[in-house]
Amino acid sequence: MIYTVTLNPSIDFIVRVDGLKLGDLNRMTEDFKLPGGKGINVSRILKRIDSNSTALGFLGGFTGEFISDWLKKEHIHTLFTKVYEDTRINIKLKSDAETEINGLGPVISNEEINELKQALSTVEAGDIVVLSGSTPASLRKGFYQELIEIIRDKGADFVIDTTGEDLKNALSKEPLLIKPNNHELAELYQTTFESVEDIIPYGRKLLAEGAQNVLISMAGDGALLFTKEGAYQSNVLVRPLKNSVGAGDSMIAGFIGSFSKHHDAVEAFKWGVACGSATAFSDDLASREMIDSLLPEVEITKID
Known about the structure:
By secondary structure, the chain is of the alpha/beta class. It has helices at residues 38-48, 61-73, 110-120, 143-153, 164-170, 182-188, 196-208, 247-262, 265-280, 288-294; strands spanning 2-6, 10-16, 30-36, 53-60, 77-78, 81-83, 88-94, 98-101, 128-132, 157-161, 177-178, 214-217, 223-227, 230-234, 300-302. The protein is globular and about 55 Å long.
């Protein structure tokens, strides 16, 4: 079983405004609402590539009900912990430039924290748990490490998609997969990259520090995969870019969905690239049809 954990989910309220004028009245030309949160995105893409998952996390209020109802319609199994305060709303404002305004998220009580931990403690050896995204400001520092201890004690594997100290502290626990982008990787090691060749030593460094597989997304330069067998680079698929939200989550879903079935990291990388690219070329998360159409175009080259 694959589990996803989204500690700070949201409704993503996507708004299009032509020629935004600050300090003036603006009228939307289009708006729509979607369930948001990195782990939720992973579960939604997993469903589309025929990999079932259980979505965990904190949901509260009418906004939480919107997300729960949406996932039920997509036949995604959920085991969310109900919280007293409302799940946040994030605004994605699309005009001449794309602007994001993210909500703070609810205050989580100790009782609610314990309920989530109890739900997570049902994982078993052989399961994969995907830990994704930010944490509500009310959660104590290092909360991801508490969840990782539960997962490892149960003999399950985990994926972590976050940044900074939470990512660095997770490496020694041997995550099955991590997926920083090139900018996050540079920040992690307080350096800069001018080329793909500059990144290679740091991909190896992540493996040496404990990661089992490392995906590094590089936007218009494709993506890299590092395993103990070597380093691999994908080609860049070309379509009009529509959506940057959820592309990285889709890449993780493609990789884990494939890897959980075949344990072939290079084939999983191919699926990850197809799923991530398909979302980037779509208004919402990728459809199965788009993923299938892109999969034959993905080329993986061993570079080290």
